[in-house]
Amino acid sequence: MDFNFSAIVDSKDFLWEGLKYSASLTLFATFFGIVFGTLLAMARLSSIKPLNLAASAYVNLFRSVPLLLVIFWFYILVPLISGVQVGADKSAYITFAIFEAAYFCEIIRAGIQSISRGQVSAGQAMGFTYAQNMRYVILPQAFRNVVPLLLTQTIILFQDTSLVYVVGATDLLGAASKVANRDYIPVEMYVTVAVIYFTISFVLSRLVKRLHTAIAVIR
Amino acid sequence: MISIKNVSKWYGNFQVLTDCTTEVKKGEVVVVCGPSGSGKSTLIKTVNALEPFQKGDIVVDGISIADPKTNLPKLRSRVGMVFQHFELFPHLTITDNLAIAQQKVLGRSRDEARAKGAKLLERVGLSAHAAKFPGQLSGGQQQRVAIARALAMDPIVMLFDEPTSALDPEMVNEVLDVMVQLAHEGMTMMCVTHEMGFARKVANRVIFMDKGKIEEDCSKEDFFGSPRGERAQLFLSKILQH
Ligand SMILES: Nc1ncnc2c1ncn2[C@@H]1O[C@H](COP(=O)(O)OP(=O)(O)OP(=O)(O)O)[C@@H](O)[C@H]1O
Ligand SMILES: [Mg+2]
């Protein structure tokens, strides 16, 4: 069997576009996942019962269903219900943000819980409101404690973005599979993207490991 | 200034505070002592509403804590508190530890807050450490910063919860000195402490707690002088042994 290198080189621009899509989807979902996840975490730790229950239900729901299914459902169901054609791209962005929020929530919740009762009291004693205490005392320390976990989740998220190819979005895997079908070079394409996913994820997780050690030294 | 009226508190079935009544007048220094688990920390934390209570009321500078309409953060911003384990904010420099609540709670400008912080830091003798993080300071130094941080809010009263009991012995005095100086300046203070030397020097009154009850509440002279309750005597003899 021949391994057609030149076909890979020919498709590099297309793959590059796919990679950019995957990267931007990852960054978008990480950013909004952390923002929503932080709000969810505060809700889960809240003493206000309905808020607490709603947030727990949300988190448990999304952590108990496969991402692939959520992508499908969102893609098919939202246009059905709302009559608005969202499109594969937008649908993927939104799905990832709401799905990842559940996972980021649990990481951030652990971070918040790692802050001692004494720190919370100290912030309150200074006259901070709940929101100010979160903003200036608790969350900065909580995030610092879970930075490695957040980054690890982002790496997993990056790999999971490959699932969007099922709704026809042109992410890295989507781009590769389109080229594979068009030029009939499946082996070349799937090997290439595997190498790309591996390299990026591996390098990033090594960096996280370094960071972890560095943080341990600071503390 | 502080008036504690018939305060009772339960954790489930366990009663931590039983009908506690006392007051701290303006300019007064009141020392609270008693065996471990007697409810001293709980009592002092009810004064700035860090601990809720089920019965009674506490009035601080005319404001009722039990009143649900009371703006607790605002009230707390006027009551300074110093903790056993310092509780400086470890992610902020000493300068920011002193400035942040002044800026965010009192709305002072950054420059104003920093200037005030620097002045107080100088007062506790730690100007050289302004740019450091709390973790780089000794326990005694951290506690002095914590006192300065509370003073930066211009509190009407200062609460201390065993401010020296987590310190190595050689650092106790540097903290007590700051507290004595404060007392001499007329600051209203409520201090949970077993430092009887401090109590002798500056206290107006001494409160002795046992099992959630205020068992003795008398002038310093009476507490250290004339006969008092059996439990208080036993307690005093134990801590004065050394
Ligand atoms: N969250 C809680 N739940 C149940 N019981 C508690 C809780 N916090 C404190 N207690 C109990 O309440 C009692 C009073 O505690 P508190 O911390 O006020 O005592 P203390 O006089 O300050 O003691 P120490 O000298 O050890 O600091 C103790 O018996 C303690 O075990
Ligand atoms: Mg205590």
From TrEMBL, chain A:
Signal peptide positions on this chain: none
Tagged with keyword Transport: yes
Pfam families, sorted: BPD_transp_1
Protein's cellular compartments: Cell inner membrane; Cell membrane
InterPro entries named in the record: AA_ABC_transptr_permease_3TM, ArtM/GltK/GlnP/TcyL/YhdX-like, MetI-like, MetI-like_sf
NCBIfam families: HEQRo_perm_3TM
Family under the similarity heading: Belongs to the binding-protein-dependent transport system permease family. HisMQ subfamily.
Protein name per Swiss-Prot or TrEMBL: Glutamate/aspartate transporter permease GltK
TrEMBL record, chain B:
InterPro entries reported in the protein's UniProt record: AAA+_ATPase, ABC_ATPase_HisP-typ, ABC_transporter-like_ATP-bd, ABC_transporter-like_CS, MetN_ABC_transporter-like, P-loop_NTPase
Subcellular location: Cell membrane
Any one Pfam family match given in the protein's UniProt record, by short name: ABC_tran
Its membrane topology: Peripheral membrane protein
Domain spans labelled ABC transporter: 2-236
Record-level Gene Ontology MF annotations: ATP binding
Keyword check for ATP-binding: yes
PROSITE patterns for this protein: ABC_TRANSPORTER_1, ABC_TRANSPORTER_2
Assigned keywords, A-Z: Amino-acid transport, ATP-binding, Cell membrane, Membrane, Nucleotide-binding, Transport
Family: Belongs to the ABC transporter superfamily.
Protein name: Amino acid ABC transporter ATP-binding protein
